[in-house]
Amino acid sequence: MAVTILFLGPLRDLAGAETLEVEAPLDWSGLLGSVGEEVADQLQQERVNVACAGRVLADKTALKAKDGDEVALLPPVSGG
User: Alpha-carbon distance 32 to 21, whole Å?
Assistant: First the structure.
C-alpha cells in the first residue's frame, strides 16, 4: 500500500528526486515528515499548492491520500 509523491519544478531540485513512494494512508503531517525539511518549509507557504488524485486541494492541510493516490506538490507559477 503506497502513495506516490510527485515533486514539480524547483521542489524537485530541493527533494533531489522526481517522485517518492510512501506508505498509505498519508495525511498532512505525514507528508511534511516524508519530504524533508526544505520541501516541508516550502509546502507550508501559502503559494505552494497540493493536488491529490488529480484535484488541487482547497485546504492542503486536509490531505487524506489513500493507497494508489498520487500527491503532486505544485510550486507557484511564474512567467508572462
Answer: 14
Residue 51: pLDDT band with limits 50, 70, 90: very high
In the chain the beta strands, taken as DSSP E runs, fall at 2-7, 19-23, 26-27, 49-52, 55-56, 64-65, 70-74
The answer to whether position 40 is within a domain reads: yes
Residue 73 lies in a domain: no
Taking CA atoms, 33 is separated from 28, 41, 62, 78, in Å, by: 9, 11, 15, 27
Residue 68 is assigned to a structural domain of this protein: no
Here the cell at position 12 is 524537485
